[in-house]
Structure formats: C-alpha cells, structure tokens
C-alpha cells in the first residue's frame, strides 16, 4: 500500500512539474526591427512583461518589408503574434487582414495621429527621417553641418553617403522628397528617380538596409553622412559615437513606428496585453529616453533638449514633420521597387 501511495505521489509530483514546465514554456512571438531597437526591447521592455505574465518572448528581427513578407508567407498558419512595422507597411498589413482590433485601448491617452482605423493598429513611437553625419569628421574637414536635402548632392560626399534602399521607409522618404522638390511628388515620382540617378546616386557608397551595417560603416570611417531616422541615430549616439543629426530646412519626414496584434482564429490575450503594454506611459517614456521616439501617449514624460546630438521629434519639430501620401505610395510601391532595382541599384 505504501509503495502504491509513493508511486502515486511520485506521479503527481511529476505531473505538477510537467504542468509547471508547460506553463513556463508559454511563448509570445514578436516580429519587429533589429539593431539597437531590438537591444532596447530585450533590455528595457521584455523582462517586466515576461515576469508579470510568465511568458517567454521570441523575437524575430527584420525590417518592415521582411515582417510583412513573413505575415504573407504564414497566412494559413501565422506564427507571429505581434507585428511591429513602419506606418506604410502597417497600412498594407491591415488591408491584407493580418491585424486584429486592439482590445482595451486607452484611446483618450493617445495622440490622434497614432491611431489607425478600427484600432487594428496603433502608433508605437514617432520618428523623424533626416540626415545623420559624423560630427567629428565634419569638424576636422572644416565642413559645415548639412542643412538641406540638396546637400546630399554635394560632390565632396562622393563615396561617403549611405542611404537605405527603397524598400526601407528612410529610402522611400528621400525619393519622395526629391520628387516633391523637383515638380513631382507621390503621384509623379519620375523627378525623384531622376535626381537619384544623376545627382545623389553618384555620391552613394552603398544602399544599406541593415542598422548594424550602417553603424559599422560609420564606425570604420567609410561613411560620413546618411539618410536615417532620429531613433536609430540617438541609439548610435548613446554608444559614444560623435553623431550629428539634422532636421533639414525643407522638412524632415514622419515615420510612425506601429504595432498590431496579428489576426488568428484565436488571437492570444498576451498579444493584446503586450500591445497595450508598449503604449503605456512608462514604456513610452523608456522608448523616448532610450531610442529617441516621440511618444504617442500623452502621459509619457520626456525632456526636450533642442541642443542634444539628436533632438527628439516632439513639440514643434513633431508638428512640422512631413507625412507622405501612403495610399498612393502603397498602390505604386511594387513598381517603384522594381524600377529602383533596375535604375538605381543596378
């Protein structure tokens, strides 16, 4: 009898351990940007959520185009629970049915510009697309800091300029800017391609999409100037690199980093909780301090230092950001990407 009771107790203990292990192994798959953004999430964002919800977050790093492609490839069996992408690809993700409505959204706490139709996504942070440069190198060469988008045409930057490709929002913003400044725009993109082909392209060292590679090119001295976002530039500056960042006089462009719970037959409650967690005042404050996002939550705290190496896109700087016509862009982007590969990165 005692042996029987002991066996039962052993089985019960094993079952309890197994149940605990299963519970501990619950996971949430989040897809989003790599580089410094991933580092900040792992260090300052994930741990508290994982502890509170007894969950392990699996992070899949990639740019917005990569994440959207994964959602499309996994359409019949989505592995991703939460997607973090730029505003343009997010509009596409919503149109393709990949995003579920956000439940429990504290809408009154959010700036209107951060909200999407039917709350199927929400802004995570505001980024300015502008010009980053090596401040120390410019001082040594006695070059004035860049002030205009047209400065990227200056022949003294030949072989020193880096611009992300067109499938990256920073590269897209540059193309739209040159189109707008030369008699075109989103509905007439030819002037932008012409400027890249004849005036900007000759200065480009490489069209680089990887944040890690971008910082390597600057750290090695190969690159001295680039089109990049305020968030990534601020993170780079935090490493001690002499980063300078400019809001060009014609205007910097708005990039709304966005997040949505992925639509599934049974959307994970943890996915909903994580989305709301990301836009909470505390996390918005952390993302502003660590990554340079302009907060989307009105209750987030931030310090506006206009003399910082990378001033945050807040206040007037945020109000002056240029927002592109995403409806037109998304209708034409595939064709533009093909044309870019054929004419610019050939």
Automatic annotation (TrEMBL):
Q: Kindly state one GO CC term assigned in the UniProt record.
A: outer membrane-bounded periplasmic space
The record's section on Pfam families has: SBP_bac_8
Keyword Signal in annotation: yes
What species is this protein from? Bordetella genomosp. 9
Q: What is this protein called?
A: Branched-chain amino acid ABC transporter substrate-binding protein
Give the GO biological process terms: thiamine transport
Annotated signal sequence is: 1-24
At the highest ranks, the source species' classification is: Bacteria, Pseudomonadati, Pseudomonadota, Betaproteobacteria, Burkholderiales
**An annotated Gene Ontology molecular function:** thiamine pyrophosphate binding
- Record's keyword terms, sorted: Signal
> What CDD domains does this protein map onto?
PBP2_polyamine_RpCGA009
């Amino acid at each position: 009898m005692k042996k029987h009771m002991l066996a039962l107790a052993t089985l019960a203990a094993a079952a309890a351990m197994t149940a605990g292990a299963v519970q501990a192994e619950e996971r949430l798959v989040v897809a989003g940007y790599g580089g410094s953004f991933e580092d900040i999430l792992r260090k300052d964002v994930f741990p508290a959520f994982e502890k509170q919800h007894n969950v392990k977050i699996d992070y899949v790093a990639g740019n917005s185009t990569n994440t959207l492609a994964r959602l499309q490839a996994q359409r019949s069996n989505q592995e991703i629970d939460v997607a973090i992408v730029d505003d343009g690809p997010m509009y596409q993700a919503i149109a393709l049915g990949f995003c579920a409505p956000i439940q429990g959204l504290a809408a009154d706490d959010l700036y209107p510009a951060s909200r999407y139709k039917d709350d199927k996504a929400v802004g995570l942070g505001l980024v300015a697309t502008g010009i980053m440069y090596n401040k120390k190198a410019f001082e040594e060469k006695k070059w004035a800091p860049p002030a205009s988008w047209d400065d990227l045409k200056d022949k003294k930057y030949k072989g020193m300029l880096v611009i992300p490709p067109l499938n990256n929002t920073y590269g897209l913003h540059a193309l739209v800017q040159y189109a707008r400044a030369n008699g075109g725009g989103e509905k007439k993109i030819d002037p932008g391609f012409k400027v890249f082909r004849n005036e900007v392209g000759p200065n480009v060292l490489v069209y680089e999409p990887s944040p890690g590679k971008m910082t390597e090119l600057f750290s090695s001295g190969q690159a001295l100037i680039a089109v990049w976002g305020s968030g990534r530039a601020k993170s780079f500056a935090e490493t001690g690199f002499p980063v300078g960042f400019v809001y060009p006089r014609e205007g910097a462009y708005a990039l709304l980093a966005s997040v949505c719970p992925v639509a599934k037959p049974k959307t994970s409650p943890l996915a909903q909780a994580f989305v709301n967690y990301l836009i909470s005042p505390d996390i918005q404050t952390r993302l502003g301090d660590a990554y340079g996002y302009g907060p989307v939550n009105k209750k987030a705290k931030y310090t506006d230092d206009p003399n910082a190496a990378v001033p945050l896109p807040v206040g007037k700087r945020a109000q002056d950001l240029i927002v592109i016509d995403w409806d037109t862009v998304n209708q034409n982007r595939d064709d533009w990407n093909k044309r870019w590969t054929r004419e610019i990165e050939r």
